[in-house]
Every structure is written in structure tokens, then in C-alpha cells.
Amino acid sequence: MEKIVSENSRLSERVATIQPSGIRRFFDLASKMENIISLGVGEPDFVTPWNVREASISSLERGFTAYSANAGILELREAIAHYMRTRFRVCYDPETEVLVTVGASEAIDIGMRSILNPGDEVIIVEPTFVSYAPLVKLAGGVPISVGTSAETNFEVRPADIEAVITDKTKAIMICYPNNPTGASISKEKLNQIADIVRKHELIVFSDEIYAELAYDHDHVCFSTLPDMKEQTIVINGFSKAFAMTGWRLGFVMAPPDLLAAMLKIHQYSLMCAPTMAQHGAIEAMENGMEDVAKMKLSYQQRRNYFVKTAKEIGLPCHKPDGAFYAFPSISHTGLTSEQFAEKLLMEERVAVVPGSVFGEGGEGHIRCSYATSLSNLEEALERIGNFLKRHTKNV
Amino acid sequence: MFDKKAYEILQIIEANGRMETNKLAKMVDLKPEDVDQYIKELEEKNIILSYSAVIDWAKVPVQETVTATIDVKVAPKRGVGFDEVAERIYRFPEVRALYLMSGAYDLSVVIEGKTMQETARFVSEKLSTIDSVLSTTTHFQLKTYKHDGVIFDKPDEDRRIVVSP
After folding, report:
1. Is pLDDT at A6 greater than 70 in this prediction?
2. What is the pTM of this model?
3. Within an 8 Å CB–CB cutoff, is residue B15 touching chain A?
4. What's the rounded Cα separation, in Å, for the pair A227 and A225?
5. 3-state secondary structure chain A
6. ipTM of model
7. Partner-chain contact B160 A302, CB within 8 Å
8. Across the interface, do A309 and B26 touch by the CB < 8 Å criterion?
9. Residue A124 to residue A362: CA distance in whole angstroms
10. B162 in contact with A at a CB cutoff of 8 Å?
């Protein structure tokens, strides 16, 4: 990719040096094939609950087709603040500490752009969502990765974070429950991270988009830890919990100075999130939790099924605690995760995502989304089992 | 024995009564023999009453039936209220469901017959002639859109792209 920079001077260096997403390549490959069973989908297999869709339709019928306030409809920000207060016991002022964004992705982007000066470093705990490092780079920062592994259930070791801190370190990016591993983190480990944050005066980006999809342990919102509210940018959204991926609606909560900076970028680049989507989101916040609970139970049951069956077919898999991903190990096949995913797609027509695209610690694994029907899971695992019989090395 | 796991098992087999024990056990994170035990007890306690399939009979060429919902006004009897007349009605094999209602009428009877005439005959000859029955209003079902929580004729395709972040 470095070559492109010199050859194509029309592009900004920041953009030219960023690799396209590794997921994209598998999408291109898989989308040309037929009869694929896809475990490559990073989104719910439910359609947005009807009451939410209905609220949005009603919003259109009533003619709410204009811009909303830049920060989002106040009623929605109030509903978000109420959710944070009742669900996690942390108070955010809807007027100055809550911003409705175009997806959680925008929240990460404007958060990075708000705090980073050229050369500032952001520690990213990996394997993780593919967008973090590119967004750091686009904001002029330098991503520094800290890997985790299946041996520690993909929980980051705080000492590993501390080891890479320099004078330029500005922030730490964490995401629990995690995409792609499904791992959660204990409150004890979060407190240790908080100690490091306090000591080095860092900012934490806590991506809590999967907070409602934590199965075995209650999710801990990072900003509820002692003194951490002032140091934390909490990112969340409607996509995963409420099955609203296509609505592109997220929200970010931060101390007023950081939020005001984010609002500046948001208002100049996007103006506001779509108004009719925001009306749907109000309904989701006020009356959507029962649906969330039902969807969560369904994911949990499919997780249980996936992990147990994976083990039976010789696919070692730690038990993910949240989100809807399993991250089984494929290292015993001797194939790289890219080779494994590509061969599996070609030979058995099962789409998974190679772990390597999610950064350090991801190699040797594949991401399987179990947000698909039980019959699909059953068939996919049978095919993976057949594949493993052919490709597992004799030890 | 009635706990969270029992509730989970019930929800799953309500949606799919044919789920194999092995698969069900994996989903609820129990051993297959424990699931069998749960189901046995739930059956014994009459919590699981029967296992049935939801069938779109309109698509089955040989079988044509008509379904009607009949609103029935009843004079309740001293001592037994509505229960005695309800029992007389639900014993008819044509009766698929029977509910005691609040509001404009007392009983809601769902019946199924082979033809509209057969259904009409049941109402006029059997139901209306029961002593306590004061009046009936019959509504024929024209089309089933949703039954027992299942949407009929719903396109079930996955609209998602094959691979996504």
C-alpha cells in the first residue's frame, strides 16, 4: 500500500496508507458464490422490533422530516440518560454529556478526532473491531496494539497496557463484550486499567455496543469506576442490542468539554442523525427492553449450542461471554486463519472471518457469528467438521 | 423443579416441539438426561399438555375446512357459573378452543368443520339448543395471517450481506 502513496498523489497520505478492511475481501469472495452458509455476519439476525419500526413510520407520517438538534432530539438524549442512570447507575446530563451519532462508528471517529494531535498514541486492545486502528490513523494518531490470547480468555493484562505507555500515549481503546472474541472483562481487571488511566492521565474509549448482550456476567460500564467518568468516552448504539444496524444510530457520552468538541465535528460533518431513526430509537429506549431480553436469550442458547458442538467436531473454542461471536482456534490445522477461511469457503461454502483481520492475537482463530438460525449453525458445523477431518494435521 | 431452565425449555419446545433432546440440551447448557427429566416432570404436571404442529391447511389440497369463531351469550347457572355450560360445549369434537370472555358476550367458541353448512348445522342444532345459551353470533375465518405466534406465508430470507464487520 505504501507504493500507492507515491504513485497516486491525489490521495491524502493518511488515507492512502490505510489498508482496506480484511473483511471486505471475504465479502467480495463470498458474495459471488451461491448456497453459502454465512457465519460471517456481524449483526443480529432479527429484524428491528415492530414497535420501533412503527414509531419511525409514524414519525414520517407526522412529517418529522427536518433536521433535529445537532446533538440529537432532546427526548432521545433524555431517554439515553435515563437508561444509563437506571441500567448502570451513572448520571449523564442529556444537555451537555450525551450526543446522538450516526452509528457507534461515527462516535469513535469524532472521539478520536476530538482528542488526538498528530503523533499521539492510542493503545488498542486486540483482537478487536477492524475500524479502531484506521480511525486513529485518520485522526492523525498512532495506534499501538496490545494483544490478548485465548489462554487468558482474551482478557487484557493491565501490565501489558502499562508496558507500551509512552509520553505520547493519549488514550486506550477497549471493547467488552468484544467483537470478535465475545470476551468480557472482570471488574477487577477494569479497576486495574482505571489505576493506569489515573496514573498516566489517559482517556479511555469504552466501546459498549454489546453491553446488553453479556450472558454470564453483568456488564460493567467503565465510567462507573471511581473517578473514571471524567476520563471516559462511552460509546454505545442501537445496532446490536435492538437489531437496528441499518438505522445507523449510536450515542456517545463524555464529560462536557470532550462532548462539546465532538459536537463541533459532528455538526460540521453530519449535522445530525436521521430524525425518523431517532424517533424509532426513543421507542426502543422506552419500550424495547423486553425484546432485547428475548433476543439475548436466543443468542445465548445458540452460543451454548455452537460452543458445545464445536468442541465435538474438534474445533477448540473458549466460551464467549457476550456479543454473538465465537472465536475458535484453528491453529491445529497448520493453516493461517486467512487460508483456513478461504479454503473453508471454497470447499465447504461456509463463510467465516479470519482472525488475523482483527489484529494482534487474532491469528490462529476464526470469527464465527452464531446470529443465524439453528439449522444453519447445525449445517455449518457439520461442514466445518468435514473440513477439519481433511485438514487437521496428524500430531 | 420449575426454574429458569424449565422456562427456557418450554419456550424452545413451544416454538419447535420436534427439537431433539441432544440439541436442546446443548442450547440450555444441560445434560440430555437432565432435559429428559425436566420434560417428563413438565408433562406429569400438565404444564406440557401436548405437542402439535402449526399447519397451513390452506396449502394442503385434499383437506378443506372452515373455521368459525362464535360469540355466545349464556345465562350462568347458580353454583356452577359458566363452567357447566362450557364443559358441555367443549366436549363437542368440532370445538377447537373455548374461552370465557369479558365484555359483550360470555364465551368465545372456535369450531372447525368440513364445510360451511356443517359448521352452520353445529351452531343451529347443537350449540343454540343448549338451555343456557341465549344467543350466538358466528364469524367465519377467511384467511389466516398469524396463528399461535407463527406468521403464515412470511418470506424468511436473510436480508443481510454475507460478510459484515
Report:
1. no
2. 0.91
3. no
4. 6
5. CHHHHHHCCCCCHHHHCCCCCHHHHHHHHHHCCCCCEECECCCCCCCCCHHHHHHHHHHHHCCCCCCCCCCCCHHHHHHHHHHHHHHHCCCCCCCCCEEEECHHHHHHHHHHHHHCCCCCEEEEEECCCCCHHHHHHHCCCEEEEEECCHHHCCCCCHHHHHHCCCCCEEEEEEECCCCCCCCCCCHHHHHHHHHHHHHHCCEEEEECCCHHHECCCCCCCHHHCCCCHHHEEEEEECCCCCCCHHHCCEEEECCHHHHHHHHHHHHHHCCCCCHHHHHHHHHHHHHCHHHHHHHHHHHHHHHHHHHHHHHHCCCCCCCCCECCEECCECHHHCCCHHHHHHHHHHHHCEECEEHHHHCCCCCCEEEEECCCCHHHHHHHHHHHHHHHHHHCCCC
6. 0.81
7. no
8. yes
9. 13
10. yes
3-state class (DSSP) for residue B66: strand
The fraction of chain B above a pLDDT of 90, given in percent, is: 73
Q: How confident is the model at residue A256 (pLDDT cuts 50, 70, 90)?
A: very high
pLDDT band at A3 (very low <50, low <70, confident <90, very high): very low
Nearest to A23 among B12, B28, B163 (CB): B163
Q: Each residue of A173-199: pLDDT tens digit?
A: 999 999 999 999 999 999 999 999 999
pLDDT of residue A395: 47
Which residues of A sit within 8 Å Cβ distance of B? 21, 23, 26-27, 30-31, 36, 38, 40-43, 45, 129-131, 179, 297, 301-302, 304-305, 308-309, 351, 353, 372, 374, 378
Residues with Cβ within 8 Å of A24's Cβ and at least 6 positions away in sequence, in order, are: none
Q: Which of A25, A91, A109, A371 is nearest to A229 (CA)?
A: A91
**B6 Cβ partners below 8 Å, 6+ apart?**
B38, B42
User: How far apart are alpha carbons A156 and A188 in whole angstroms?
Assistant: 12
How many C-beta neighbours within 10 Å does residue B82 have? 18
Mean of the pLDDT values across residues A226-241? 98
Phi, psi dihedrals of residue A376, rounded to the nearest 5°: -65, -40
pLDDT digits (tens, 9 = 90+) for B42-101: 999 999 999 999 888 888 887 778 999 999 999 988 888 899 999 999 999 999 999 999
